[in-house]
Amino acid sequence: MAHTAKQKDYFPYLLLVPATLVMVAIVAYPLFETFRLSFTNTSMSPKYEYVGLANYEKIMSRRFPEVIARTFYWMGISVALKMLIGTLGAVLLNAMVPGRALFRILVMPPWVIPIAIGVFIWGWMYNGQFGMLSGMAQRIGILDAPFEFLAYKNSAFMATIVTDVWIGVPMVTLYLLAAMQS
Fold first, then answer.
1. CA-CA-CA-CA torsion for 95, 100, 104, 106, nearest 10 degrees?
2. pTM for the structure as a whole
3. Do 21 and 38 fall within a single domain?
4. 3-class SS at 40?
């Protein structure tokens, strides 16, 4: 059966329709719904009222600049550590050094383990009562009593950086290794 030129022109676009619908369903709709709900007093309850710009006024009237500055500080430390460790890792993986095979094996677990599981494991390690880090620090003599890493502002801040770096370094390492070998 022969197709006309006009039918051939639309066929590639028709193939994009299912993917476009999926993207709208999983990206555009939740984004729109979040924006819409930002103008309400919604919580876990299904009942809510329209409050206009009150939520935005509340955010701006508090410590918003401090929160933004701390976010950029966190991001700067995290990205710098990922780049530093990732570059060192890529150089080691690219060089002919003893233990290269072992390093290649060790760099993969954070990348292979799903992020949710990795965060759960780090949460367990940071636990002061039965977590590995607090227990090891007590055995070595650094701590006299259990320490709750996630209970205090500064230790929680650093703990989230360590977790983020652990999760992100393998990807940075592999990207930089690919760039070095290309």
1. -130
2. 0.68
3. yes
4. strand
